[in-house]
Amino acid sequence: MIDLLELYLVYLKLGFLAIGGAAGVLPEMYREFVVVHGWMTDAEFAQAYAIGQLAPGPNMLMQMYVSYQLAGFGGLAVALLGFFAPTAAICAAFSRWWYGRAASPWTAAIIRGLAPVALGLMVSGLWTVGQAAIVDGKTAVIALGAAGLMLTRRVNPVIVIALAAVVGYLSPV
After folding, report:
1. How would residue 33 be classed by pLDDT, with cut points 50, 70 and 90?
2. Domain extents for the chain?
């Protein structure tokens, strides 16, 4: 059984690292859940990410799925309290001050400075999930096809994920 305090502390750290959104925290989440604690395998992590992308709402709902799988309803509560609550409280408190200074050149400079950080974290997240999900030639072809479709057409990502799932299921091993 997973220690809920340990799970809470991992989520607390991840919540404070989530600059730029969910994709920015994926490499550290992978490291914590797969490498450090061994709570999940590569395949389980990739599957949890895919399910999180399919679920309606924010893509960090992946946390809820993972937490429930690891520790049931206690895990759900821990994920909510650790990952979302502290940073939501800080954002709520900080936003009033921040938007009062929207015209400041410092505000624009901070936003411009954080944009490359967020982009780098998202690319790192893509790399991490890619390494966990692309395990053979078949998955590489599916990933390249999905990326090509997303880059060349305006297709809903849920449709691309569903198509990739069908191709993966129907194609020979």
Report:
1. very high
2. 4-133
DSSP code per residue over the chain? ---HHHHHHHHHHHHHH-TTSGGGGHHHHHIIIIIIS--S-HHHHHHHHHHHHHSSS-GGGHHHHHHHHHHHHHHHHHHIIIIIHHHHHHHHHHHHHHHTTTT-HHHHHHHHHHHHHHHHHHHHHHHHHHHHH--SHHHHHHHHHHHHHHHHS---HHHHHHHHHHHHHHS--
Of the ranges 16-25, 44-53, 164-173, the best mean pLDDT one: 164-173
Distance CA(36)–CA(111), nearest Å, equals 33
Which pTM was predicted?
A: 0.65
| Contact call for residues 39 and 33 (beta carbons, < 8 A) | yes
Taking the CA atoms of 138, 140, 144 and 146 in sequence, report the sign of the dihedral they define: positive
